[in-house]
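Sequence and structure are kept together here, with a separate record for every protein. A complete record is shown below as an example:
=====
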Amino acid sequence: MNDDRYGSDVLGGSSSTHHRPTRTSRPQPAETGLVVEEVTTGWVGAVVRVEKSGGQHVVVLEDRRGRTRTFPLGRGFWLDGEPVALTAPVRAPAPAKPTRTASGSVAVHDARARVARGSRIWVEGKHDAELVEKVWGDDLRVEGVVVELLDGVDNLADALRDFSPGPGRRVGVLVDHLVSGSKESRIAADAVRGHPAGSVLVLGHPYVDVWQAVRPERIGLSAWPVIERGTEWKHGILRELGWPADDQADVARAWQRILRSVRSYADLEPSLLGRVEELIDFVTA
């Protein structure tokens, strides 16, 4: 009795023979740094970039010796022992453009800067100009308003005489420490005399320096320190804060630190905000 449970032909085929299923390549984004093997060449490397060349997308792989080779994007790669089809990496969508400028105005995107008006805004110094630019710069470019340095209110009378304000050539001036009875208020009043009515507007804030117009909370203070008369204000402030105060370079670094803390109009005192907005309205009317 022949009971050959395996059959007489050990090499013969059978309908019950099991075959390994074909392994399909799964999609794999070719992200930078991904290490894969190209199956036809055995080249192993990390993805450097994906680009378009000769009308098709290719992937550039760099091996451990720094050599690079380029292969068509798609099937033909192995990743962790599995076949993959490399695809172009998914790019994150660009962040949404802000709907408001730092000053709180409605943002106007992709608008070219307007040709400069004849009218100007003058500020006393560089720090004032940098603060105005950071908060109102977008608005001023749309309106075509140029901000210029006055280099101190003492120069106001000469600057106005040279500029010759009049119709279409208005000047708005932002002055530090413009309070009743101050030297600054007297200089401003004298400088405006003799110029056409409605051509010059001098406004100011009550602070000794524009630094104080930044809310003290932005640099970790509850209030700005009070500096004794006779002490150079900025150096006195730096010493009170425990910041370097040896020379002008220390002052410049401190101001940049303060300026970086300003994100929008909300970080400034209302007494400055209102004055700048009024000056912008004046020169653009």
Summary: Residues 126-143 form the longest helix (18 residues). The longest strand covers residues 44-53.
